[in-house]
Design goal:
The complex is a heterodimer of chains A (390) and B (442). Helix content of chain A is 46%, strand content 9%. In chain A, strand 3 and strand 4 form a beta hairpin. Chain A starts with a helix and ends in a 29-residue tail after the last helix. With 442 residues, chain B is of the alpha/beta class. Helices cover 45% and strands 10% of the residues of chain B. In chain B, the strands form 4 sheets. Chain B has a 5-stranded parallel sheet with strand order 4-9-10-3-11, with helices on both faces. In chain B, helix 7 packs parallel to helix 8. Chain B is globular. Chain B starts with a helix and ends with a helix. The chains are: A alpha+beta (390), B alpha/beta (442). At the A-B interface, strand 7, helix 11 and helix 12 of A face helix 16 and helix 17 of B. Chain B: Keywords: Mitochondrion, Ribonucleoprotein, Ribosomal protein, Transit peptide.
Chain lengths: 390, 442
């Protein structure tokens, strides 16, 4: 047996390597030579609960369960120490308090926020690891282990099972004649499906794009038919809410001046120009910039068109008086800054719906474009030097 | 039909006959034309009644009959004559009143038409370029009647020509209509048969002149032959009639061979200036001096209209051959014009306009007389009557838009809607110049 000899030699070395494991295996039954080889091969793949180095997993660091538990204990003790250091109550020391304490104790000037010192719970720091998929006998726990993507396929299986249940129920109702074509309009606005990365993180498994698409399609199909509360809850697990942007818009409160006229103040910026605008509720459309009439301050029509935009959009062209101050920038950026300031100030005189329309029109967003830096080896930010063939 | 109703019981006496007959005739004349049947029936009743009464007694006042009879002709005359301008309640932008002398408050904001023939006489090459383009495009010259011009016309109508000439200065921000108000005044004076001395833009005399010659009259000063000859040509076109009437009071020797005798018409001096370009500046000086001297005599009324008068006291951009800057008083034209603008003569008026647009070394936002004239100019012009020309009032703005719409100049579909008008109002801030530029061709 030339071939087995080679195996045997290898097996011997492994036997020596693994030590006590082999005797345990032999105790479990009558083994043929080939079976012994297989066993040893199988043994090779086992990772012990004890901290034995696994050859296959040397590619990636694995954090054992014990290790994670130890880290969590250290974190909690450290949290209490930190609370004592800061003079706070250790029982009610939250994560925000920890962040503030660390930022205070280790001030960092680094621009990259993720490079700064952090102290967070180990579950957020160490990536999620798969627990051991098979038992001591080597048999995998999950019935879909050999598909390769057990969590994904089990999820699909579950979802499809639910779909079949719902359809069966519907068929029964139809047979009885109690089927009603109710179409519930589920409130899908304000929430979105999980993205692929989030799903991967949830399942601790790599997915392909087609897998992900298939899953989302299945869930959407589940949504189209009417389902009971538990199915709803199952689907909602895979949806994340999206905050409605407009509710973040800060609306300035109205102020009243000596004569009882309501006015509203706000600021705006564009490039390096800063502007502050005071919009009065009743007026005849006069605008004064730095004490000068806007026709004289902005001789170019384009700038005046920018000033006109918020009022024209809300159809309030001759109805408000504005006084503004502006500094910095050039003529175009000053006009843009005043426009933003006026639009923000107008929010206080206008309904919520119109505020949302203004936001969608882009009147309430500060223009983030600034001058791009010139790079060495180039003539400008993008322009390269003239290429000479020789 | 009237004959049936009337029933004269007894023939009236001779003295009364005429009155009765008159009234009857009046009624007879009027009745077929106007349908005042009630009056007729009343008149008929009165006539029959009175005719049955004592014919000699004048119970009924024939004047009353005449009055009722003549009521009809009065209203009829009113209908026929129609002196009021046609005002439809909707699009009000024009008036048919062509004589500036009759412009009043009721014409404010309305455009009136100047015949093109008058334009060619009064303003040969001296209108603002954008306005002359508009005249060419619309093939009609329409000026809007505005408050500053009306005020000025009122003052002009009530001037006392025995007093020294009053100076009026039109000032205002850029594009508000100072030059066109001046044109309105010039048109008025031309209609009133004044002699018009119009300098369309004094700034042209202090910048970018090519041929500067040392003056033949005074060694320290400089001549500008080109500008002077152009001005003389325009002067001739405008005041053709007066050139033969006014006689020169002195002898002027131009050079060894040419001279103008005393008593010869002014036209000769002008001709001399136009033909002999070298003497043009001196010709201008002579013309100005003569007119100033003779206006006091009362033969004619003189209007001195200068646009951009702040050029006379500002700085120039002209340089001599040795690259030294020329001051304005060293230019003969400017010197003579300054003398003209002084109020030491009578028999006319001086209307001036300040202008930042062509001015040299003045900030863009300056528009007040103090800022634009400087100390020297202000002292020279003091005392004067300042007249502010401001942006359009809402009525005038509406009228201007209507005028453009009538001429099919605004082609945007939103131009005639309220929103469109509001947009234009915002973008131009009711400034006439800006509005014109906004509505202009691309």
């Amino acid at each position: 047996m030339a071939a087995p000899c080679v195996f045997w030699g290898a097996a011997v070395s492994y036997r020596l390597f693994l030590g006590g494991r082999v005797s345990l295996a032999l105790r479990q039954g009558v083994w043929k030579a080939a079976a012994a080889e297989l066993q040893i091969l199988r043994l090779r793949h086992t990772t012990g609960v004890t901290a034995k180095k696994n050859v296959a997993a040397l590619r990636r660091e694995t954090y054992t369960v014990d290790f994670i538990k130890k880290q969590i204990e250290e974190f909690n003790i450290g949290k209490r120490h930190l609370a004592n250091m800061m003079g706070e109550d250790p029982e009610t020391f939250t994560q925000e308090d920890i962040d503030r304490a660390i930022a205070y104790l280790f001030p960092s000037g680094l621009f990259e926020k993720q490079a700064r010192p952090i102290m967070k719970h180990p579950e957020q720091i160490f990536p999620k690891q798969r627990a051991i998929q098979w038992g001591e006998d080597g048999r995998p726990f999950h019935f879909l282990f050999y598909t390769g993507k057990q969590s994904y396929y089990s999820l699909m299986h579950e979802a499809y099972g639910k779909l079949l249940d719902v359809e069966k129920r519907q068929n029964q109702l139809q047979a009885k004649g109690l089927f009603s074509e109710k179409t519930k309009t589920k409130d899908l606005i304000g929430s979105r499906w999980l993205i692929k990365e989030e799903l991967e993180e949830m399942l601790v498994e790599k997915l392909s794009d087609q897998d992900y698409a298939q899953f989302i399609r299945l869930l959407e199909r589940l949504l189209t038919v009417e389902c009971s509360a538990e199915e709803e809850e199952f689907v909602q697990r895979f949806r994340r809410s999206v905050t409605v942007q407009s509710r973040k818009q800060l609306i300035e409160p109205l102020q009243y001046d000596g004569q009882g006229m309501a006015f509203s103040t706000s600021e705006g910026k564009r490039k390096s120009a800063k502007a502050e605008a005071i919009v009065y509720e009743h007026g005849s459309g006069r605008i004064k910039v730095n004490g000068i009439d806007y026709l004289l301050y902005f001789p170019v029509t384009q700038d005046r068109e920018q000033l006109m935009f918020p009022f024209h959009f809300l159809d309030r062209l001759g109805k408000h008086d504005v006084t503004c101050t502006v500094s910095g920038g050039g003529r175009s950026s000053q006009a843009g800054a005043i426009r933003l300031a006026m639009a923000k100030a107008l929010c206080s005189f206008v309904t919520e719906e119109e505020v949302e329309w203004m936001r969608q029109a882009g009147l309430l967003t500060a223009d983030p474009r600034v001058r791009e830096r010139k790079k060495p080896g180039q003539e400008g930010a993008r322009r390269k030097f003239t290429w000479k063939k020789r | 039909m009237y004959h049936n109703n009337c029933d004269f019981a007894a023939p009236p006496t001779k003295s009364m006959l005429t009155e009765w007959q008159l009234s009857v005739l009046v009624l007879l004349y009027i009745s077929p034309i106007c349908n005042e049947d009630e009056n007729l029936s009343v008149a008929a009743a009165m006539l029959t009644r009175t005719s049955r009464l004592v014919p000699g007694a004048r119970r009924l006042d024939p004047g009353r009959l005449l009055h009722t009879g003549s009521q009809a002709p009065q209203s009829l005359a009113a209908h026929l004559d129609n002196p009021a301008p046609d005002d439809s309640p909707r699009a009000v932008s024009r008036t048919s009143e062509k004589d500036p002398a009759r412009h009043g408050e009721q014409h404010e904001g309305l455009h009136y038409n100047i015949p093109l023939q008058d334009m060619r006489t009064l303003f040969p090459h001296s209108l603002p370029p954008r306005f002359s383009m508009q005249v060419k495009t619309f093939s009609e010259a329409c000026l809007m009647v505005r408050k500053p011009a009306l005020e000025l016309l009122h003052y002009l109508k009530n001037t006392n020509f025995a007093h020294p000439a009053v100076r009026y200065v039109l000032y205002g921000e850029k594009g508000t209509g100072k030059t066109l108000s001046l044109c309105h005044v010039i048109h008025f004076c031309a209609k009133q048969d004044w002699l018009i001395l119009h300098v369309p833009d004094a700034h042209l005399w202090v910048k970018s002149c090519r041929g500067l010659l040392p003056s033949t009259y005074n060694k320290q000063r400089l001549d500008q032959p080109a500008e002077a000859s152009i001005w003389l040509k325009n002067f001739k076109t405008t005041n053709e009639r007066f050139l033969s009437q006014i006689k020169v009071q002195e002898k002027y020797v131009w050079n060894k061979r040419e001279s103008t005798e005393k008593g010869s018409p002014l036209g000769e001096v002008v001709e001399q200036g136009i033909t002999r370009v070298k003497n043009a500046t001196d010709a201008v000086g002579v013309v100005l001096r003569e007119l100033k001297g003779q206006s006091s005599l009362g033969g004619f009324r003189l209007l001195v209209a200068v646009d951009g008068v702040n050029a006379l006291w500002g700085k120039t951009t002209l340089k001599r051959e040795d690259k030294s800057l020329v001051a304005p008083e060293e230019l003969a034209l400017v010197h003579n014009l300054r003398k003209m603008v002084k109020n030491d003569w009578h028999g006319g008026t001086i209307v001036l306009t300040l202008s930042q647009t062509g001015s040299l070394f003045k900030p863009r936002k300056a528009y007040l007389p103090q800022e634009l004239l400087g100390k020297e100019g202000f002292d020279a012009l003091d005392p004067f009557i300042p007249i502010l020309v401001s942006n359009y009032s809402p009525k005038e703005f509406e009228s201007c838009i209507q005028y453009y719409l009538e001429n099919s100049w605004l082609q945007h579909e939103k131009a005639h809607t309220e929103e469109g008008k509001k947009e234009l109002l915002f973008l131009s801030n009711a400034n006439p110049g800006q509005l014109e530029r906004l509505c202009a061709h691309l």
